[in-house]
Amino acid sequence: MKPAPFEYRRPATVAGALADLAAAEGARVLAGGQSLVPLLNLRLATPPVVVDINRVEGLDAVVEREGRVHIGATARQSAVLASELVRSRLPLVAAALARVAHPQVRARGTVVGNLCHHDPASEMPAVAVALDAEFTVVAPDGSAATSPPPTSSSAPSPSPSRPAAWSPASRSRSPRQAPAPASTRSPARPRTSR
Ligand SMILES: Cc1cc2nc3c(=O)[nH]c(=O)nc-3n(C[C@H](O)[C@H](O)[C@H](O)COP(=O)(O)OP(=O)(O)OC[C@H]3O[C@@H](n4cnc5c(N)ncnc54)[C@H](O)[C@@H]3O)c2cc1C
């Protein structure tokens, strides 16, 4: 099958991506396309606008800031898997990613796209929960907030309930900094927007 008609946009900035997403109800982000494109082809998703974020500069970074590893929205699974920072600080992420799909898919697919797709059969959502990962979610007005990964076991939705929200990054504590059980958890560390 072929996708239903949609408008394709390829902004170069975060602000442009937010504007494109806000412009049409049901607009969807395109990251690696490894899950979205099949949904489009099967017409299980029929967004009026697809916003390709691959030209947005800097979103492919994998960096450490304030004790956390930040994984940008367009960081390929293969790049995250090869990252020395991830291998040393988040060995569980590297071990799980090595089992995600195969090299061709990992060369295009992103970690953040995988988490946003939220397939309960995927390795990464469980890893994100285990490592106390947080999403940085940017609203159409540009305000950013952090949220924990979703934990429901429902199948990925072809039509997300909050299509205008955009997750340009996820970040994880290293296992050494994993939170203690709730009863002994220390106060939350200060959070940055991205
Ligand atoms: C043959 C094959 C085998 C696979 N095997 C596995 C496997 O074994 N394990 C596994 O975990 N996965 C597997 N996958 C899925 C693969 O890991 C995908 O790459 C991943 O699920 C989606 O990442 P993506 O970057 O391609 O996202 P896309 O396909 O571009 O997007 C997926 C969804 O997330 C949304 N989205 C993406 N990025 C953002 C963002 N920044 N903000 C908001 N929404 C966003 C999109 O709008 C879309 O709804 C497989 C895929 C294929 C084709």
Walk me through this protein's architecture.
This protein is an alpha/beta fold and 194 residues long. The chain has a single domain, classed as Uridine Diphospho-n-acetylenolpyruvylglucosamine Reductase, domain 3. The protein is built from 8 helices and 8 strands; from the N terminus they run E-H-E-H-E-E-E-H-H-H-H-H-H-E-E-E. It has helices at 14-23, 36-41, 77-82, 84-89, 91-97, 103-108, 111-117, 123-130; strands at 7-9, 28-30, 49-52, 62-65, 68-72, 134-138, 144-147, 166-173. It has a 5-stranded antiparallel β-sheet with strand order 4-5-8-6-7. A 3-stranded parallel β-sheet has the order 1-3-2, covered by helices on one side. A hairpin with a 5-residue loop joins strand 6 and strand 7 (144-147). It binds flavin-adenine dinucleotide. Flavin-adenine dinucleotide (FAD) is lined by residues 28-36, 73, 100-101, 105, 109-110, 112-114, 116-117, 122-124, 166-168. It holds the Pfam family FAD_binding_5. It comes from Modestobacter italicus (strain DSM 44449 / CECT 9708 / BC 501). Residues 147-161 have a biased composition (Pro residues). Residues 162-194 have a biased composition (Low complexity).
